[in-house]
C-alpha cells in the first residue's frame, strides 16, 4: 500500500499559515499576484509608486501605489537561474538559454537559417584527476560494472583499501566521494576550480591561433575571414570539479550571416580543440605547504559534430546545455549560498567531501598568495567563481534581449496610458517612479499555496517551517 503520510516538512506551522493566508480578505488579489510572478518561490518585495504625467500640462494620467497591494508591497519574480532557489524562475532561465543555444544552431532570433551549414561541434573539457573517487561505470554491454576493482587488492599509504567492487546505483551517495579522503588533493582541486575560467580563456586564444596558423594567417588577420563563435556552460561533477560543455561554431567574417571559408571544416575544428586543450596551462604559486601547481585540462576531451539529424542534434545539445545552466554545485552536496562568518563548518548540511573542499577554500583563502582568487568568498562554489553560462558576442541573441522582448510584450498588453494628443509624436507620457526594496521570500503557507495555484514545484521548506530568505 502506498505511503500516504504527508511530507515531513509540511508541518503544523505551514498548515496554519496556509489557512490564515487563504482566509484573508485580500486572498484573491494575492493569488493574482502569485500568478503574475509565474509562481516565483522567492519573490522580491518592493514598496513604492508610479505616476504617469502629461509633461505639457502636468495632468496626472495614472497613479499606482503598492498601498493597494496585499500587505502594501508589490511582489516581483526573483529571476534567479538556480533551480535550488526557485524552480519557476529557473525554468524561465532554462527556456531562454535553450532558445539562445538553439538559435545559434538552426537560426531564428536574428540568426539566419543558413547557420546550419556552418561547422559546429559539442565540446567537453574536463578537470584532471586529484585522486580516485567512487564512480558508476558501465561495460561494453551497457551494464553497470564494479567501481574500482583491483586484482591484488592492497591499501593506500593511509591504510585504506584502494579497491571498490561495488556496482553503484545511480543515486548512491558515495558517487564522487574519494576512495581515500586523505589521499585526495583538496588543495589542487579547489585551486583548479579557481583557475578554470582563466584556463578556458587561454584555451579560446590557443584555438584561434591554431586555426589561423593552419590557414597560413596571422591571428590578427583571422577575423577578416573567419569568426569563432561559442556558447558555454559549466557543470559540476560529483567529485567537486567543474567541467565545461561548449558549442563551438565556425562562421565567416562578421558572424553567422557569412559563410565560413571552405577550409574551415569539422576536422579543423576538432584538431584545433585537441591542440588547444593540450597546449594551455595556468600556474599558481607555492604557499606554505602547497607547492607550485600547473593547472591543465584533464585527458577526457570530447568533440562531437552537431547535425540536424543523427545521434547529436541541435535540439539535444540545446536542451543539455540549458539543463545545466540552472544548476550549481548541489550534486557535490554543498550549499547554494555563501558561507557566512558565523557558520560553523561542522554544522553545515553538506557531504563530508564537500565539507573538506569548503574547508580547503577557507584555509587557502587566508593565504596572501591566493588572495586574488577570493576562495573564502566562493567557498560554497568550491573555489569556482566564473559565470556558469557564457557565449561569444556573435553566437546568437542574448538573454537580455529575450527578457526585454518578454517585458515589451507584457507592457504592450497592459500599458494603455496616453495623453490622447495628436500627432503621435506629441503623445509623450512622463513616468515618475520611486521604489524601495523591503526583502525577499515567502512564509511556508504562502509557498504551499503558490505551488498549488501555479502548478510550479515548491522549494524544500526549512524544518522550522520557514522558507529560506523569508521576510515574514
UniProtKB/TrEMBL annotation:
Domain of life, per lineage: Bacteria
Species, as recorded: Actinomadura mexicana
Name of the molecule in the record: Replication initiation protein
